């Protein structure tokens, strides 16, 4: 189901490894074993931390409930986890905007949406009938910082209210 | 309760079906009343003759409708049209039954949505009980499921509880037609009423979610229609459904009863998800504390469907 897939998030984990053969492989195994999907590895061999270790940044995608298990299994394997959970990739939000979009200056509407600190527009589809009398629709795909969906939606509602437009929001719960 | 004597108030689609089906459930109809007339017989009325007379002459009998309230019955079935605000005359009908220590089963949403606290107070002072499964989701056992789990074990309810709005949205999506076209079609088919305001403005769905909120709050809080945030579907152009479909989604009139409150409005949902039921079907999702999510769907309106819920309520009454 489409929304189950969007629940999978990419998390960044920062590790410190001892500069010895096999250390990196040993650190990656627990991730895949715990159901994480490795997206990228940034292995800074030239850099050394004050403790003389090599910093490694790993991007892992997994369902939210798996993430803690991955971090736990890394720690159990003796890997030094410096930071876990900061999400590199943000959440996606799809909304419809309905009303007299053209008459109310669509580009201004979009600028207002973009100006909202927590969202950036990644895709827009507009469907406007020929006559000016009928209302038109736009589908916006927004990238938002995780945990800010409610705030972004309420900003969107304000912008829409100001122009007598309607926001058709996604149902965030209960779609599975 | 088996072999109950029923007084049915209101002879619309639901009341008529209750009168027709009561015998099949082992019950006897001792009184029937519409707004202007009544038929009363302590030994059981001739249901067929009464319904024929209603069809032919527009009256059910020669008695005064108020006399039905004082007739001999175990259970009053309140199936008069839903009214808002003071929810009269439905509320007084139910109050009358409870004051007589009789049970009341409601198909009328008004008293349960607008005066839930008053109803429960009257019930507390009476030997009679009230039940109102038929007010939410027609034949779908929603209130009784909440009863079974216990309101403390259900954290939220959401879903589609208006078949007319759902029919219109699913036809708009399937045929690429605009709201006005599909509404006219729905009216021709009898799916939408001549005045569809209650359905398409989200009021009917909101009343049902207000009722669910009252049931879930279990006396800790009381909700009325004024507490609900309600938005209808009349402003949705066909293009909105097209854009949603391109993205694997569709639009449904979704209601929610959560600890944050009651809301009804058009929402984007996955095209292949459980909430995107088509046609006049209804669905409710209940979030449980220990058992995940329950999806219950079925026919949310119609005479025999809703009468089924009324008669199931009669069976659930104790004593």
Automatic annotation (TrEMBL), chain A:
Highest rank taxon of the organism: Archaea
Lineage: Archaea, Methanobacteriati, Methanobacteriota, Stenosarchaea group, Halobacteria
Protein name (database record): Amino acid-binding protein
InterPro entries: ACT-like_dom_sf, ACT_ThrD-II-like
CDD domains noted in UniProt: ACT_ThrD-II-like (cd04886)
SUPFAM superfamilies: ACT-like
From TrEMBL, chain B:
Catalytic residues in the record: 208
GO BP, one annotated term: threonine biosynthetic process
Residues annotated for NADP(+) binding in this entry: 10-15
Residue span, Homoserine dehydrogenase catalytic domain: 141-314
EC number of the protein: 1.1.1.3
Record: residues binding NADPH: 109
One example GO MF annotation: homoserine dehydrogenase activity
Residue ranges annotated for the Glutamate/phenylalanine/leucine/valine/L-tryptophan dehydrogenase C-terminal domain, each copy included: 2-64
Class in the EC hierarchy, top level: oxidoreductase
Binding site for L-homoserine: 193
Domain of life of the native organism: Archaea
Family classification: Belongs to the homoserine dehydrogenase family.
PANTHER family noted in UniProt: HOMOSERINE DEHYDROGENASE (PTHR43331)
NCBIfam families (alphabetical): PRK06349.1
Protein name: homoserine dehydrogenase
Organism: Halonotius roseus
């Amino acid at each position: 189901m489409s929304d189950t897939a969007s629940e999978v998030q990419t998390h960044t984990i920062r590790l410190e490894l001892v500069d010895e053969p096999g250390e990196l492989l040993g650190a990656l195994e627990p991730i895949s074993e715990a159901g994480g999907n490795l997206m990228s590895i940034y292995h800074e061999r030239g850099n050394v931390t004050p403790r003389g270790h090599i910093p490694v940044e790993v991007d892992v995608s997994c369902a939210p409930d798996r993430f803690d298990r991955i971090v736990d299994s890394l720690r159990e394997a003796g890997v030094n986890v410096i930071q876990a959970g900061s999400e590199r990739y943000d959440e996606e939000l799809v909304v419809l905007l309905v009303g007299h979009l053209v008459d109310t200056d669509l580009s201004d509407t979009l600028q207002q949406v973009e100006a909202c600190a927590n969202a950036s527009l990644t895709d827009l589809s507009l469907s406007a009938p020929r006559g000016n009398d009928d209302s038109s629709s736009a589908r916006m795909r927004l990238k938002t910082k995780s945990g800010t969906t409610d705030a972004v939606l309420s900003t969107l509602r304000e912008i829409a209210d100001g122009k007598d437009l309607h926001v058709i929001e996604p149902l965030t719960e209960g779609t599975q | 309760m088996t072999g109950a004597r029923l007084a049915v108030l209101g002879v619309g689609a639901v009341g008529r079906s209750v009168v027709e089906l009561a015998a099949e459930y082992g019950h006897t109809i001792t009184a029937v009343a519409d707004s202007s007339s009544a038929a009363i017989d302590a030994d059981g009325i001739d249901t067929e003759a009464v319904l024929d007379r209603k069809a032919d002459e527009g009256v059910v009998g020669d008695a005064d409708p108020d006399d039905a309230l004082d007739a001999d019955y175990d259970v009053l079935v309140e199936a008069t049209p839903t009214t808002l605000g003071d929810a009269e005359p439905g509320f007084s009908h139910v109050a009358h039954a409870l004051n007589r220590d009789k049970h009341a089963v409601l198909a009328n949403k008004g008293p349960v949505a607008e005066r839930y606290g008053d109803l429960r107070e009257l019930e507390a002072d009476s030997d009679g009980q009230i039940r109102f499964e038929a007010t939410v989701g027609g034949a779908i056992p929603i209130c009784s499921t909440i009863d079974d789990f216990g309101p403390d074990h259900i954290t939220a309810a959401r879903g589609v509880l208006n078949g007319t709005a759902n029919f219109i949205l699913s036809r708009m999506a399937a045929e690429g037609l605009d709201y006005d076209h599909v509404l006219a079609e729905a009216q021709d088919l009898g799916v939408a009423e001549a005045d569809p305001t209650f359905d398409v403005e989200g009021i009917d769905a909101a009343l049902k979610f207000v009722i669910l909120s009252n049931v879930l709050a279990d006396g800790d809080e009381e909700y009325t229609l004024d507490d609900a945030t309600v938005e209808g579907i009349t402003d949705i152009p066909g293009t909105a459904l097209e854009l949603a479909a391109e993205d694997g989604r569709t639009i449904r009139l979704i209601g929610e009863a959560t600890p944050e409150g009651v809301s009804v409005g058009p929402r984007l949902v996955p095209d292949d998800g459980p909430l995107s039921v088509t046609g006049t079907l209804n669905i409710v999702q209940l979030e449980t504390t220990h058992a995940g999510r329950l999806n219950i769907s079925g026919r949310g309106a119609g005479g025999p469907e809703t009468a089924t819920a009324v008669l199931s309520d009669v069976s659930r009454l104790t004593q």
